[in-house]
Amino acid sequence: MRKAIRFGMAGLLAVGLLTMAPAAFAKGGGVKASGKCSASGVWKLKASTEDRGRLEVEFQVDNIKPGQTWDVMLSDNGTAFFSGTKTPARDAFHVKKRPANQAGTDMINASATNQVTGETCMGSVSIG
């Protein structure tokens, strides 16, 4: 039984890793990644550097049910720069923020959890 659970968990991890696109250069020298959420949703995460020591970070979740509230968090190197809720009128929501550019490499993490269904979307990019 324990062996079956371990294989099942390993399989879920492998599927999650395969569905997550690796970070790639976006326009303007940025990075982007995308992947599947735990149910029907899909996510996209982009980050690029701006003038004046800031980053531009965009997180989008598509293919979701309108009217359901999502808890969303964005962080840079473990420090949250956005925490809030989104209740899309249509089948997607979008968050765009401009946090300070940290010294060295910035690891941007994004997560969203549907308050009704428990569906989760998680992604990350690294920009330096």
Description of the structure:
The protein has 128 residues and is mainly beta. The protein has a single domain (22-127), classed as Immunoglobulins (Immunoglobulin-like), CATH 2.60.40. It contains one helix and nine strands; from the N terminus they run H-E-E-E-E-E-E-E-E-E. Strands 1-2-3-4-7 form a five-stranded antiparallel sheet, with no helix packed on it. Strands 6-5-8-9 form a four-stranded antiparallel sheet, with no helix packed on it. Strand 5 and strand 6 (79-86) form a beta hairpin. The longest helix is centred in the N-terminal third of the chain and has 18 residues, at 2-19. It is elongated, with a radius of gyration of 16 Å. Residues 1-27 have low confidence and may be disordered.
